[in-house]
Amino acid sequence: MANPKVHVKKGDTVQVVTGKDAGAKGKVIEVIRDKNRVVVEKVNIVKRHTKPTKAMPQGGIMEKESPIDASNVMIYCNKCARPVRIGKKFKDDGKKVRICRKCGEVFDK
To answer: Which CATH number, 2.30.30.30, 1.10.3720.10, 3.30.70.20, 3.90.79.10, labels domain 13-83?
Structure first.
């Protein structure tokens, strides 16, 4: 089975639209395509109880981000200052880019 498409990429600024962290903004750290999930910084924080290891002799309770479903986030447009839907457009050189449906801001460099 081919990996499904996800509408966000690593490094995008997104806003969570549903769930316990609704309204939170952050940068996408990782995209897990086969599970259609994304990891957003400072969103969906979970506590992990870790044993002491050589790398981390202290051990203890660690906080880290957990993945959330990609359908629960929308790309945040800085020009519109709100979460927006995206469209696709071809540039003059033939490159396909993602754009804001409201204002036409280009998300891909």
So the answer is: 2.30.30.30
